[in-house]
Each structure stands twice: as C-alpha cells, then as structure tokens.
Amino acid sequence: MERAGNDHKERICIIGGGPAGVSAAMYLQKKGYHQVEIYEKLNKVGGKAWSPRFEVNGESRAYEMGAIMGAKTYYAVHELERFAGIDHDGPEMRRMYRNADGQEIFPFDPQKEFSFGKLAGLLRMKSQMKKLVKIMDTKYKGYDLYGHVGVAKGRYSGLSKEESRALHRVSGVNPNLKDLALPFDEFCRKNGVEDVQKIWIAPFTSFGYGFFDEIPAAYVMKYLDTTTAIEFIAMRLWTWKDGTQSIYEAVNRKLENPVHLNTEVVKVERPDDGKVYVTVRQDGTERTEVFDRLIITTPLDHFLTYADADEDEHTLFTKIRHEEYVDFLATFRPNDGPTISGYIFDNMTPERRGHAMVYYHRWKDLTDNCPCSVYALRNHAGDEDVPYDETIRKMTDDMAICGFPLQKRLIEQETYYCPHVTPEDYAAGWYDRLDALQGRRGTYYAGEILSFGDMEDTCASSRDIVGRFF
Ligand SMILES: Cc1cc2nc3c(=O)[nH]c(=O)nc-3n(C[C@H](O)[C@H](O)[C@H](O)COP(=O)(O)OP(=O)(O)OC[C@H]3O[C@@H](n4cnc5c(N)ncnc54)[C@H](O)[C@@H]3O)c2cc1C
C-alpha cells in the first residue's frame, strides 16, 4: 500500500466525507495520487462518526451521536490514527443490564441471582461459544475477511481480519461459506449454537444492526468475528476523548486536498468519452467538474437519484435495505440520571421495536450529571415501522421506567443505517455482481454496504478498493 512518490496524474472524485471517503483519500495520497477532491454535503467531516460538544459543569466535552467505539481488531482505523498522529484516548466503557421494567438484572452473573436453571443456561452458552469459535476457524475458514466477494459461491477473497496477517490479501475455496447467506438465527440453529445469540445480540441488535431473523449471518460474523466479540464481552474497547469524529478531522488535516464542506453532489454523468462529470452545489450555485475516476462512498440506493445510473446499477441498488436507527442525547433531572451505561435486553426483540435498547453514559466523573445517548430501532422486515415520534416517546418513557426522567433532549436524529441485502439476494450473489461492476464507467463503489456498517469495515473497504484498482 505504501507507494508514496508516485506521480499519478488522474483526477479522482470522492463523494462523501465520512470514514469511507476520508480513508479512501488517505490511501490514495499514500499511493501518490495528488489530484483528489472529496465532496461532503454537510459542514463537517466524519459522516456518522459525529461527536458534538456540550458544556457541563462549565466544561465542554465531546459526546457521541454516532460511532462510539472500536477494538484492537480495528486495524484500518489504526492506520488512520497513525497517519493522523492520534490515539484512542477516550473514557473507559462501563455497562449494566436492566429488564423492561427498569430493574437491574444480572444475566451473566450466577452469583448475583442464583438458580440452577440459570447456571445450566450459562454453562450451555459458554460451551456453545467455544463451539462457535472452533467452527468459525475450521468449518467456516475464510469467513473473517472484509467484504463478501465469492462467499455466496463458496469462495473467499479479500483483506484478512486475522491478527497475524491483518489487512493482507487472502483467498481460497470453502463451500461451507455459502451458509453465511442464511439469517443469523438459522445459521446458529444449523450449527447447534443457538444460545450464542444472547451474547451477540447486545453489540449487534442494540447497536442498530437489525434482528437476527432478517440479517444474513455473514454481516454478523464479519463485524463480530470471534476475536472482536470476545473484546466486547471483556469490555476492552477503544474510545476517543474528542469523539470518533476527531479521527476523521485529524486525517483530513493531513490531506493534501482536504474535504470540500457544504458541497453536495447533485448530478453525475458518465458519457462515452471516458470522463466523469460531477455537478456540485455550493453556496447556492452549481458547477460541473471533470474527473477521470469516481469513488462513491454515499448510499448506493441514493446514487440512483442523482446519477445517470444504468440498468445493472439500478437492478442491484434497488435491492439494498437499511435499518432505521434513532438516537438522542439527553440531560436528566438533577440527581436522577444514569451513572453507567445500560442494556435493556427485553427491548431487543422485533415486537419491542421502537423501545430504548441501550443508553450510553460516557463520562464517569460527571456521575448523574452526564448527558446520555439513548438508542432504538424502529423497523423490522415484514412489520410496520414504528413512527418516529412514537419511537421518541417510547424511548423517553423507557428511560423514566429505569428511573431516569428526562430533562431535555439536546439533539436527536434518525440515520440511514447498516445497508445490507436480504438473505435471498445475498445467496443469489449480489456481492459478486457488484464486484463485477467495479471500475466500469470510471466508477468505484465503497462505503458501508461493501462489508459492514461500522468504521473499521468501511475504512478497510476503502483500503481494499484503492489497493486493487488504483
Ligand atoms: C448511532 C450510531 C452508532 C454507531 N456506533 C458505531 C460504533 O460504535 N463503532 C463503529 O465502528 N461504527 C459505529 N457506527 C457506524 C459508523 O458510524 C458508520 O458505519 C460509518 O460512519 C460509515 O462510514 P461511511 O463513510 O461509509 O458513511 P457515512 O458515515 O454515512 O458518511 C457518508 C457521508 O456522505 C455524505 N453525503 C451523502 N450524500 C452526499 C452527496 N450527495 N454529496 C456529498 N456528500 C454526501 C454524508 O453527509 C456523510 O457525511 C455508528 C453509527 C451510528 C449512527
């Protein structure tokens, strides 16, 4: 990857200044490309890594409205940190568990709430966890790569997530990998490890990535490969003092051509002359720039609305699904706020969609004065969405039930979250069809859909695309 000194003359356009766009620019710069322009429609870089600052007790600190954490398996993010000269220097993560009635529970601690049934359940879960780790390393060898190329056909090809050869290209054949197209609950049943879902659910469903009956196992296991899952269980997680947004701001400061903010791409035309014509709107005026190549890091289904998409792009991109993840940052009545983050397991079911599943207490020393972020999913395949306002109401009520009456919502949002394809489209080779389009009409597809909707997978996918095609 490190081939600085090349003098590539091509002009490259990147749409989107989130983790995928900023990392793609970094990797291009490292390879010696100097004519790279990144267009970002908002007035900030970082995309869904969004860390607004608020003042509490006279001190301004970063809170998280988007991405919060990483782990030692965040190899690509670590490359960004090194490039920018920053470190994961944020507060330690702490958590507890509650039921839907707001009472504290101890699902993983038989000593706190003893029963023989519970102990037996925990032992079963532990042995299934061991079994899963083993089968993923053997039967499903090759599963832990970034991206999905070949998986539906029983092959693997991509950058490795394995510590000893992280971010190195590996490939091979393993027909068992086809099972990864199954919904995760079915995949677990097939392998006799149903109980591991009770562990995987917290960092998956409560983090907005969908329910296990609708999401192919490939997404679950590529994001929460067994090493990352163990780091999550042990709470050995990375956070950033100035928030995850600060990673991308720091990288952006080191780019030869920093992100053009407040610049929305409104049209893309790719006629037969080999050039890409990109029209941007900035300060109310539009202009068209000419490029040799284009990297799209924004939602591919949205690309259809402003680009001269062809039939292949249209057929593939209309199959993309996404989650509707809602979060707000709130203050609580004096002496009545949480003092530690909490998971509400009962609310992580499709029937309880729209309810608060998790809340994040970031700063231990602010105790119950710390504003907290609260999160809910309001959709599930085949069911009606819970309306946005009703979701906010349910989340607010849930916090009150837990004993934390809200004072004020400081900020709230719903995000286009975790783009993915259905188990059927996955099995039918959606990813191989997408890969076959890479480079056609000077266009490259990057961002969350390529591997998974987290910072690491998006940055690693940008690394892979720059490494393979530039
Ligand atoms: C609540 C929440 C919690 C999360 N927690 C974690 C976590 O703990 N750990 C983790 O690793 N990840 C987490 N994530 C996920 C992570 O933030 C995303 O996967 C990551 O930001 C995706 O990067 P991206 O660049 O592909 O897309 P985005 O971050 O969505 O960036 C795309 C950018 O493109 C811009 N854009 C869109 N259309 C246009 C246009 N037409 N012209 C110009 N610009 C455009 C957008 O404004 C945006 O800035 C979380 C996300 C959310 C919302």
UniProtKB/TrEMBL annotation:
Name the domain of life this protein comes from: Bacteria
Q: Which residues form a coiled coil?
A: none
Q: Name one GO molecular function term.
A: oxidoreductase activity
Q: What is this protein called?
A: FAD-dependent oxidoreductase
List, for all copies, the residue spans of the domain called Amine oxidase: 20-303
One Pfam family linked to the record: Amino_oxidase
